[in-house]
């Protein structure tokens, strides 16, 4: 099962942008993340729509923070990315009529829902400034 690392990668980029000193191009960010600039632009567009970053086109253009890191939480970024679940595990629906599958899904669903709720509540208390603080940003 493949892990979704978009949240940690975006957090990485945003903390870097705080100390970069000038707009960072999609190409620079893509090199940092070892990905394609198109992927960076698509992801950053989601953050731009929420007002967390801004972009300038042309010479000396690129991505910059539009909101101080102290005003952005992990939850804000999770939500901006459109993440539906923080867990890669899920329920099976291959045997909908099987009473054992229904019982297992019910038990797993309750636990996952409770764990996700707790995690997202904690995300709301951690700002990106707190992340950056550990790196002298």
TrEMBL record:
InterPro entries: Tscrpt_reg_Rrf2, WH-like_DNA-bd_sf, WH_DNA-bd_sf. It comes from Alteromonas pelagimontana. PROSITE patterns: HTH_RRF2_2 (PS51197). This is Rrf2 family transcriptional regulator. Pfam families: Rrf2. It comes from the Bacteria. GO terms for molecular function: DNA-binding transcription factor activity. The lineage of its organism: Bacteria, Pseudomonadati, Pseudomonadota, Gammaproteobacteria, Alteromonadales. GO terms for cellular component: cytosol.
């Amino acid at each position: 099962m493949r892990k979704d690392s978009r949240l940690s990668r975006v957090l990485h980029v945003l903390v870097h942008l705080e100390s970069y000193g000038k707009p960072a191009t999609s190409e620079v960010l893509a090199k940092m993340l070892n990905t394609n600039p198109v992927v960076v632009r698509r992801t950053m567009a989601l953050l731009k729509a929420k007002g967390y970053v801004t972009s300038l086109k042309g010479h000396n253009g690129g991505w910059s923070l539009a909101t101080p890191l102290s005003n952005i939480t992990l939850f804000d970024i999770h939500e901006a990315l459109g993440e539906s679940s923080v867990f890669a595990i899920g329920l099976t629906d291959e045997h909908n009529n099987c009473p054992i599958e229904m019982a297992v899904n019910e038990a797993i669903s309750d636990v996952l829902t409770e764990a996700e709720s707790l995690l997202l509540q904690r995300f709301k208390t951690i700002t990106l400034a707190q992340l950056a603080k550990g790196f002298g940003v």
